[in-house]
Write a structure and sequence with these properties.
With 105 residues, this protein is mostly helical. It has a domain of 71 residues. Helix content is 45%, strand content 0%. The chain binds iron/sulfur cluster. Iron/sulfur cluster binds next to helix 3 and helix 4.
Length: 105
């Protein structure tokens, strides 16, 4: 007798967790090389970056993924369609405290 995994139960169990969005990620069953580079490298090639970004652009959980990476300062890979450098730039432009003085009136 073969026991099949209960995929519905697995989904229900992970739907309420902080990582539930990962279940919906288009990269879930993809080669991680496009997102993190080959094992002997510390970054994906420009071609792999294009492949990963194209996948992220169609992903239903792109916002959740990007938010997770920004909040947790993920140092490697492509998350939510952003490279490491783009995440640093995003934080610099969007999340830093304002340097403009508060208007008096
Ligand atoms: S946005 Fe990109 S990295 Fe994030 S889950 Fe989707 S496909 Fe994966």
């Amino acid at each position: 007798m073969t026991i099949e995994p209960n995929r519905d139960a697995w989904h229900v169990r992970h739907r309420n967790g902080a990582w539930d969005w990962r279940v919906e990620g288009l990269c879930r069953n993809q080669d991680p090389t496009s997102f993190f580079g080959p094992p002997d490298s510390d970054a994906p090639s420009p071609t792999d970056v294009d492949i990963a970004k194209a996948l992220c652009a169609r992903c239903a959980v792109r916002s959740e993924c990007r938010e997770y990476a920004l909040n947790n300062q993920e140092p490697f890979g492509i998350w939510g369609g952003l490279t490491e450098r783009e995440r640093r730039q995003y934080k610099w432009f969007h999340l830093r405290p304002s340097t403009h003085p508060t208007p008096l009136i």
